[in-house]
Design brief:
Blueprint (H helix, E strand, L loop, with lengths): L10 E14 L2 E14 L3 E5 L6 H8 L7 E6 L2 E2 L5 H11 E5 L10 H11 L6 H10 L15 H14 L4 E5 L7 H16 L4 E5 L3 H5 L3 E6 L2 E7 L3 H22 L1
Parallel strand pairs: 3-8, 3-9, 6-7, 7-8
Antiparallel strand pairs: 1-2, 1-4, 4-5, 9-10
Bound molecules: adenosine-5'-diphosphate and magnesium ion.
Length: about 260
């Protein structure tokens, strides 16, 4: 990919031949080994794979939070590799949202202020209506004055999603966002992410180890040992679980060989 005109129409995330290595002692360890992935407008795409297969590293490289060792990543037609630090920060601020397993809420601030925090940090006027709307869309209308510590994990994660929603991002990256939640709370969080991803001009990329979560996405890609090795469109819980089990068995076989 040399310019945006070579990208498929509607491709919001385009990663081509991404490699990522980390220095370990005097050598390096290769974590991502030639990963290419395109996520299109309106798509919710899940990444699955055995623990340690590189899912988080891939998400961070695609989100501009980590710099690939080589390869190209473009978001919304803009090359990350050729962006300045300032351009990256601006892209993150205006177009990208992040949801992590830990909710990253400020425990000393009430819910409303947690959702308003990105606006305040930028010195912008806080649009109260927009924040109330984001809270009500995750089922937390009227909870703005609650303290996060008084809420369940599922509610706290929905606050974190409201904070993302209030920013109106076009791409949301989520790393095991339902990992700490029971299945009902997880479903609520997921339906919010689906709503974001399904909207025109938007998409969601979500790392999950839960086959039920993956099955409710449009597509699931599978990683093993730093590579994308398979994908399923129109996934079901069963098809996802059996492919994941096969990958886990193979990755254990590999690590036993190595040992
Ligand atoms: P996953 O999310 O699939 O569990 P990760 O992307 O977190 O996997 O990690 C993949 C591999 O990369 C793991 O073996 C991990 O130990 C290693 N790794 C992750 N970050 C670093 C780092 N900063 N330095 C060295 N190794 C790392
Ligand atoms: Mg991870």
């Amino acid at each position: 990919m040399t310019n945006s005109s070579t990208q498929p129409v509607g491709a919001l995330i385009v990663a081509e031949h991404v490699f990522k290595s980390y220095p370990v002692g005097s050598s390096t360890v290769d974590i991502l080994k030639d990963v290419s992935l395109t996520v299109s407008e309106g798509e919710v795409c899940a990444i699955m794979g055995p623990s340690g297969s590189g899912k988080s590293t891939m998400l961070y490289c695609l989100a501009g939070l980590e710099k690939p060792t080589s390869g190209e990543v473009a978001l919304l037609g803009r090359s990350l590799t050729r962006s300045t630090r300032k351009q990256l920060a601006e892209l993150r601020r205006s177009e990208l949202g992040f949801v992590f397993q830990s909710y990253n809420l400020m425990p000393t601030l009430p819910v409303f202020e947690n959702v308003a925090l990105p606006f305040r940090l930028r010195g912008e006027r806080v649009d109260r209506a927009r924040i109330e709307e984001a809270l009500s869309s995750v089922g937390l209308a009227g909870r703005g004055s609650s303290q996060p510590s008084s809420m369940s994990g599922g509610e706290q994660q929905r606050v974190a999603i409201a904070r993302v929603l209030a920013q109106r991002p076009r791409i949301v990256f989520a790393d095991e966002p339902t990992g700490a939640l029971d299945s009902r709370a997880g479903r609520l969080v997921l339906s919010e992410l689906r709503r974001i991803g399904g909207a025109p001009g938007q998409c969601v990329l979500i790392v999950t180890h839960d086959p039920a979560v993956a099955a409710s996405c449009d597509r699931v890609v599978f990683m093993r040992d730093g590579r994308l090795v398979d994908q399923i469109s129109s996934p079901t819980t069963e098809s996802v679980a059996s492919l994941l089990a096969a990958l886990e068995a193979r990755s254990e076989a590999v690590s036993e060989e190595a040992a």
